[in-house]
Amino acid sequence: MVGGGIGASIGPVHRMALRLDGEAEIVAGAFSSNPEKSKESASQLGVAPERSYDDYRQMAKAESKLSEGERIDFAVIVTPNTSHFEMALLLLESGFHVVCEKPMGVTFDQAKTLQAAVRNTRKILMLPHAYTGYPMVKQAKHLVHSGELGKIRKVVVQYYQGWVPYRLKVQAVPSKAWKFDPAFTGPSLTVADIGIHAENLARYVTGLEIEELCADSTSFLAGQGLEDDASVLVHYKGGARGLLHFSQMATGERNGLVLRVYGDKKSLAWAQETPESLTVCDLSRMDSILHKGGPYLCDQARAAGRLPLGHPDGLVEAFANLYLAFFEAIRNPGRDAGSEREDFPDVDDGVIGMGFVEAVLESSRSDKKWIRMKC
Amino acid sequence: MVGGGIGASIGPVHRMALRLDGEAEIVAGAFSSNPEKSKESASQLGVAPERSYDDYRQMAKAESKLSEGERIDFAVIVTPNTSHFEMALLLLESGFHVVCEKPMGVTFDQAKTLQAAVRNTRKILMLPHAYTGYPMVKQAKHLVHSGELGKIRKVVVQYYQGWVPYRLKVQAVPSKAWKFDPAFTGPSLTVADIGIHAENLARYVTGLEIEELCADSTSFLAGQGLEDDASVLVHYKGGARGLLHFSQMATGERNGLVLRVYGDKKSLAWAQETPESLTVCDLSRMDSILHKGGPYLCDQARAAGRLPLGHPDGLVEAFANLYLAFFEAIRNPGRDAGSEREDFPDVDDGVIGMGFVEAVLESSRSDKKWIRMKC
Amino acid sequence: MVGGGIGASIGPVHRMALRLDGEAEIVAGAFSSNPEKSKESASQLGVAPERSYDDYRQMAKAESKLSEGERIDFAVIVTPNTSHFEMALLLLESGFHVVCEKPMGVTFDQAKTLQAAVRNTRKILMLPHAYTGYPMVKQAKHLVHSGELGKIRKVVVQYYQGWVPYRLKVQAVPSKAWKFDPAFTGPSLTVADIGIHAENLARYVTGLEIEELCADSTSFLAGQGLEDDASVLVHYKGGARGLLHFSQMATGERNGLVLRVYGDKKSLAWAQETPESLTVCDLSRMDSILHKGGPYLCDQARAAGRLPLGHPDGLVEAFANLYLAFFEAIRNPGRDAGSEREDFPDVDDGVIGMGFVEAVLESSRSDKKWIRMKC
Amino acid sequence: MVGGGIGASIGPVHRMALRLDGEAEIVAGAFSSNPEKSKESASQLGVAPERSYDDYRQMAKAESKLSEGERIDFAVIVTPNTSHFEMALLLLESGFHVVCEKPMGVTFDQAKTLQAAVRNTRKILMLPHAYTGYPMVKQAKHLVHSGELGKIRKVVVQYYQGWVPYRLKVQAVPSKAWKFDPAFTGPSLTVADIGIHAENLARYVTGLEIEELCADSTSFLAGQGLEDDASVLVHYKGGARGLLHFSQMATGERNGLVLRVYGDKKSLAWAQETPESLTVCDLSRMDSILHKGGPYLCDQARAAGRLPLGHPDGLVEAFANLYLAFFEAIRNPGRDAGSEREDFPDVDDGVIGMGFVEAVLESSRSDKKWIRMKC
To answer: Is D165 helix (H, G, I), strand (E, B) or coil?
Structure first.
C-alpha cells in the first residue's frame, strides 16, 4: 500500500475491503510521505519493519527483488491525485498489478500512457469505482442489458455532497488542505472526484458512451479555480440523452449519488445511500421495489450479495466485490476483460473518466460549446 | 367557465377548488366547442340554460350586459393552449377578471399583450401554477426569504412525467389528440406544459430571476417537432446557478416535481407527490422534516393549511388557496401586487413563463448557445 | 349542523367535504352552545338568521315544520361526545338523516338504541370514519376480497398521535378542556377517539370480526382515569390474529395510522399520512407500490380518486367520498346497505365501535382477561 | 468455529465480521457433524488439517493441550439451537472464551447454568445480538440515557419476517428442515429466534427491564407446535409500557425490525433495514433525521461508524463492532462488564432472553395470564 497511513481516510476502507474475504493481507507499504509516520503506521498494521518503505520507489525496487511467493502481488495507491500517475506507472513497470484510487492521474494523456503500460506489461490496473460493486447496481445493469427496460432514452445521474461548506465554514480547515490545493488535487476538484463516478455508474449500467457534452461548472467556495459544482448535458452515441450533475458545495447533502434510467418499456432508480433496493417503474406507473438478496435477482446480483434479504450490506462489501473480481483476474492471467469474472473498473474506464474530466472543463471554459469526447 | 365540459380533465379540478370554501360558484359557461355537449354539461353543473353559451364571445357579450350583481365576476379558461390568448384578451376587455390555464398563450408577444391588457383594464388575471398554493411551498419561500438558508447558490428542479409513453404505447391514442397537435398545443409540448411550472416554482420560492440559459430539448415520442424532454442550465441574476429539467416521456413517472434549493447555510427539498413535508438540511448534514400544520411554521404556511398535522391536504386545497387569494384581490380593487394578500401567480408570471419557453426552444434549436431571457 | 361554530376544528372539515362536489350546502344550524357565538357563526357561514337556532332541539322542531323542499335533508352533529347520542336520537326521530361524529355515544347501549331508531325511522346515520374514503383503502379492501392476498392470517393497525403531551406540556391547556373532561368526552379518551378508527379500518379492509380481545390500556398524562394509550390483542372469528394499538401520548407522532394485513399469498401496508400509495408484498418479498389514479386499480378505487396519478388527493376528498355515498343513499330510499353504492360507515359500524370501546376498557380493568365482543 | 461449514448461512457472517479488522482469524474448527464435510470446509477456509476436528469435544480437548500462544483464544458456536448449551458449557470449562449464537440454549435453566459457568471460569461468553452493534442504535441508547427523550413511557418493537411461508410454499422445503424440527430448534421457533432480538434491542436502548408480560402466540404454518407469530404486552419496571410483536409467517416481510421509543420530551424510531439513520421527533412533532457519521453523534456512535456520512455500513460492520468489544474484553481480563469498552451482549443477556422465551410461551399457553419474568 502506498499512502493510507495513520489518519488517512480511504486507506482503511481498502484494507477492510481486501481483508473481508480472507483472500489478501497487507504485507508491505510506504504509508506516508513522512518516514516516521510511515513506520508507525506499518507497525500498527502488523507490517514487518523491513517491508515498511520510505517511498513507493524504494518499495517497488525492494519488492521486485523478492521471490515470487514472497513479494507483493499488487500495490494499492491511496495518495493525493497528482501522484497517482507516476506511482501507477512505476509499479506496473516493476511488475506489479495495481489498484489506483481515482482519478487515474490528472490529464487525459497520463491516462493514455497508463493504458499503454497496462497493455505492454500485461498487468492489471483496477480503478475503484466502488459503487459498481453493489448488488442492486448489478441488477440494474442486468435489467438494461436483458432488454427489460426497452430502448434507453434518458439517463440522469445526480451526485451531491455537502462537505465543502462543512469543512470551510464549520471546521475552518486551512486553505492548504490537499483537496483544495491544485498542486495535490490537480486541475479539477469535483468533476475528478465525483463527476467521474457519475459517468462511470451511468456507463456501467447502460453501456452508453458519451458522444458530446455541454457543461456548466462553477467555483463557489473551493477557490483557486477549482470547480465545486457542475451540470453536464450529454448526447450519448445512438441518440439517448443524459444529464449528469454533481456538486460538493451542496449544503446538507451527504453522499447523494442517485441514478435514474428511462427506457421505453420501464425505468429504474437507485440511490447510493439506500443501496439495498432498486425501484423499477413500468408504463402503467406502478413501482416494483427489488431488494438485495431477493430470489428473483439475476445471478450476478445474487452472487454480489453477502447477507440475506433485509440484512444490509454496506459499501465495504461492494468494494470487496471489486477486489474479489480483481483477485480472480490476477489468478487467471489469460485475461478476458469484460467477462463477468472480470467485473471491475479498469484502466480503460480510467481513460474514459479522464476524457470526461477534460471535456467538462473545456466546455465550461470555452464559451460553453458542445465538446466531443476524446477516445 | 370556458371549456371544462363533460369528460374534461382540468375543468372539474377548478370547480372543486373554487367551491371548496363556499366563496364562488359556476353560474355561466361555454363548456365545449360542441354546443350540444356544452348544454348538457351546463345542465349537469346546475347552470341555468340561458347562461349556457355557445362560445366565449357570446358569453362575454351576454354577461357584460347583465347587472353588476348578476353577471359573472370572473371567467375561468380551461381550453387547449392555442385558444388561451384570444379568450383571455376578450374577457379582460369585456370587463371580467380572468383565471387562465397555463400557458398564457403560445408566444411571448401574446403574453406581453395580455400584460398590457391587464394594466389597461385594471382587471386581474390569475395563472394557476397551483403548486405554489401548497403550505410547505410557502414555508420553503419563507425559509429563503427570512435568510435561514443563507445566500442561495444552486436551485435544482426536476419535473418528470410518464404519460406520453403510456398514452402512445398502452392506450394507443390517435395521433390527433390535442396535446400532440401543434394546432392546439402550440409550438411546445413539455416546456409549455410543465417546464414553466418548474421555472415558476423555483422563482416563487427563491425570488431568483433567470439571466441566461442553455438548453437541450428532444422529441423522442411526441412527434410533429414537439419536444417531450428538456434539460436547462441556468445562470440566475446575482450568480446563483440553476438546473431545470423536465420530461413527459419519462416512463414510470407520475407527477414527479421535485425542488431543491442550496443556500450557504442550509438547503431544502420538497416533492410534490408528498407535499405535506419539507426537508431542511444544515451544514452538519442533519435533516429536519417540517410538516404541514406544525406549530413552528410561518404564518402564511400555517394559514394555507386546512387540516391539522398528519391529516393530508391535497392539490385541490392548494389550488383553492390560490382562488382564495384571487377572490381577496377582486374584493380589494386597490391592488397591492406582491403582498401576502395577493399570493397567486398573475399575468407577470405568465410573461416570464412564455419568455422561458421561447428561450429554451431557441437555445435548443440554434446550436445550443446561451440565450438571455427576454423581459 | 349542530356545533362547528367559530373556532371549532372538525366542523369546517365537514363543510369542505360536503361542499366539494356541489351537492350540499349548510342552510341551518345550532353552531354553538353559546347563542351569541352561534349567531355569529351562522352569519359568517351565510346561514339565514331565522335558521340559526339556539340549540338542536329548537332546530329539529323548527325544521321539521318546513316543507320538504325547504327543510334540511340531514343534520351533521359535531359536538363533544357525551351529547352525540341524544342529538342523533332526536334528529332521527324528527325525520332527518344524520351524520354523527364518532364515537356514536358513550355506551354500547346508546349505540344499540340508535341502531333501533335507524331501523324504526328508516333514516340513515353516517358515522364519519373518513379514512375508509381514501381510494387506496378501497383498493386494499379489493385486494383482500378478490382473494389476491389469500387467506388473511394477521392484521396489525397502529394509530399513534402526540397531541396530548403537546397540549399539556407546550400549550399548557386548562385541565378542563373538553377532551380531558369525562363530562364531555365520556369514559374513554383514546379508544373512543382513535381506537375505533383502527378497528373500523381493519374491519373495512378485511371484513374480519373480532371474537375476543385482551387489552392493556394506561392513563399516562390525560388524568381523570382517561386512558391515553392502549394495546389490544385480538382473536378474529375464523382464526386470524390481530394487534390494534393506539396512543395519544406518543410524543412526536402526528396522525400515524398504519394498516398492515398479512395473507398467505401476499401482504399489504397502507399509511394514512401518505395515503396515495399502497404497498403490496409477495412471497418472494418483492414490493409493488400502487398509486392513486393508476390504470390498474379496481373500479371503486378508481372512482374514489379525484385527481390523476401523482396529483395528491387529501383527507377532505376522502371525506367527500363518504358524503357522496351518503347522498346517493338518501336519494335512493330503498336501501341496499353494504352495496358499493352505500359505501359509507353507518349505525351498525357505530354499534361495533362502541362494543369495542367497552370490551377494551373492561379487559384493561378486570385483571386483563380475554373478553368476548358484544353484538 | 463449531459448525458453519460449506453451505451454512450464519458461519460466513461471523467469519467476515471477525476478519474485518484484522484482529482475528479462524485457525481451527469442527465445521460440520459430517466429518468429510468438516474436512472439506477446513480446507476451503485455510485451516490446517490437523486442526480440523470431528466434533467440538475433540476440538476442546486437543486445543486445550496446545500452548497458550498457539491454541485458539475463543470458539464460535454456530450450530442448531439444541446443541448450544452443551457446547458452550464444555468450551467454557475447557478454558476458552465463547461466542455462542442465540438462543443461549433452549431453557432458562440452561442459561442459568451457563451464567454460573461464566462466573466460575472467568471466561467471556458473547451472544451476538448483532443489531446492537449499529452506530445509530448506540446513538439511540445515548439519547435515552442522556435524558434527551425525557422519561420513557412506551417502547414498541416489531420484528416481522416472511421466510416461513416462502420456504414452505415456494421452496417446499422438507418438513424436517432443522428450523422446523423441535429436536434441533427447541420448543420455540419465532420467540427464540427473533423475539429475543426485539427484547434485547429494547433493553439495550432503554435499559428497561420487563416486570410482567401477557402474550398471544400462534402456530400458523410452522407446525409441530412451534409458534411462528407472537404479540407481547409488556409492563416494564418503573411504569413504562411495552409492546413487542414478531412474526416469521409475515408474508412479504424481509427482516423488518423496527424500534420506537416514546419519552415525555421526545421520541425516536429506528429501522434495521435502513440502519444508517435515526429519526427523533419532538413535542412540536418536527422530525430530525440523524445519520451515521454525523459530527453531532455521541462518541460511541461515532466510533462505531466505519465509513463517513452517506457511505453505508452494513450488518457485517455492526457485527464486527461486537467482535472488537469482545476482543478488547479478552485482552483486558480484569473485566468491567457494562462499561463502554465492553459493549457487547453477554451471558446475562442470554439469561434474560431465555426467561423471556419461557414467559411468552407460558403466557400464551396458560389462559393468557400476565406472567412475571424470572430472573
So the answer is: helix
> Is the CB of residue C162 less than 8 Å away from at least one CB of chain D?
yes
Residue length, chain A?
375
Torsion angle (degrees, nearest 10) of CA C49, C54, C57, C59: 10
Amino acid present at B243: L
Give the neighbor-by-neighbor strand order of the sheet with A2-3: A2-3, A74-78, A97-100, A125-126
Chain A residues touching residue D276 (CB < 8 angstroms): 273
Residue with cell 391535497: B314
Span D66-97, pLDDT tens digits: 998 999 999 999 999 999 999 999 999 999 99
Give buried/exposed letters for B265-297 (b at 16+ CB in 10 A, else e): bbbbbbbbbbbbbbbbbbbbbbbbbbbbbbeeb
CA dist B285 and C28 (Å) reads: 54
Distance of CA A302 to the CA centre of its chain: 22
Q: Is the pLDDT of residue D336 over 70?
A: no
User: How many other CB atoms are found less than 10 A from the CB of residue B43?
Assistant: 12
D273 touches chain A (CB under 8 A): yes
Is the peptide bond preceding residue B312 cis, with omega within 30 degrees of 0?
Answer: no
Tell me, yes or no, if C99 comes closer than 8 A to chain B by beta carbon: no
In angstroms, rounded to a whole number, what is the distance separating the alpha carbons of residues A257 and D64? Answer: 52
Q: Establish if B288 touches chain C: CB-CB under 8 angstroms.
A: no
Report the alpha-carbon distance of residue B359 to residue B230 in Å, rounded: 12
Q: Bridge partners of D78?
A: D3
Q: What residue ranges of chain C have pLDDT lower than 50? A: none
Contacts of C111 (CB under 8 A, 6+ apart): C104, C105, C347, C350, C351, C353, C354, C355
Q: From chain A, pick out residues whose CB is under 8 angstroms from the CB of B220.
A: 153-154
Would you call A19 and D15 a contact, using CB atoms and an 8 Å cutoff?
no
Q: What is the dihedral of CA D179, D184, D187, D193, to 10 degrees?
A: -50
Q: Which stretches of chain A score pLDDT less than 50?
A: none
Interface check for C372 against chain D (CB to CB < 8 A): the answer is no
Quick one: how far is CA B18 from the chain centroid?
Answer: 15
**What distance in Å separates the CA atoms of residue D30 and residue D72, rounded to the nearest whole number?**
13
pLDDT in tens, A231-256: 999 999 999 999 999 999 999 999 99
Q: What is the pLDDT of residue A337?
A: 56
- Using an 8 Å Cβ cutoff, are D139 and D251 in contact? no
Percentages of chain A per state (helix, strand, coil), in multiples of 5: 40, 20, 40
Indicate whether B96 pLDDT > 60.
Answer: yes
- Cβ(A226)–Cβ(A219) under 8 Å? yes
Q: How close A96 gets to chain D, by Cα (Å)?
A: 24
Which cell numbers in the block locate residue A262? 428511462
| Contact pairs from chain B to chain C, CB under 8 Å | 108
ipTM surpasses cut 0.85:
yes
pTM of the model: 0.97
CA dist., res. C3 & res. D360, Å (int): 48
CA distance C99 to chain D (A): 31
The chains found to touch B (3+ Cβ pairs under 8 angstroms) are A, C, D
Chain C 205-244, residues with CB within 8 Å of chain D CB atoms: 214, 216, 218, 220-221, 229, 231, 233, 235, 241, 243
Burial class (CB in 10 A: 0-12, 13-18, 19+), B71: middle
Query: What does the alpha-carbon distance between residue D4 and residue A6 come to, in Å, rounded to a whole number?
Result: 35
Which of helix, strand or coil describes residue B75?
strand
Task: Provide the 10 A C-beta neighbour count for residue D225.
Answer: 11
Number of Cβ pairs closer than 8 Å across A and B?
133
Overall size of chain C counted in residues? 375
